[in-house]
Amino acid sequence: xxxxWTPALRPATQRRDEKASVGDRSFPSALAGEAGAAASLxxxxxxxxxxxxxxxxxxxxxxxxxxRALARGDKLLDALDGLRHALxxxxxxxxxxxxxxxxxxxxxxxxxxxxxxEILGEIEVRAAVELAKLDSAL
Length: 138
Fold this sequence. Notes:
This protein is mainly alpha-helical. It is about 75% helix and about 0% strand.
């Protein structure tokens, strides 16, 4: 079924009522008031706003910190496992030692889970012990 009827198009007209004209007159004055308020934020007040944003960024989120901590623990365990395999094979590549040292030197993400913190601490101690043993042997 086909519809052949189309409505007649009318030219657009501007709305001219009292509310629009009042609003148009107050708009520039409102902008001037906001510009004055923005200009008054100088020195300590502006720094306070920036410091607030920076402090929000420093707050450790529960899941993000936990994921980063787990990933760091996995990397350390993988590096220790690679070192164990190299020692069993009778070789000790310098690159593996450097990787383990770099991973051990990274900062530990903040985690609320006490058990996870304890496990990560044990992994870090094991990595430090292995590095100390191999540094003294070399």
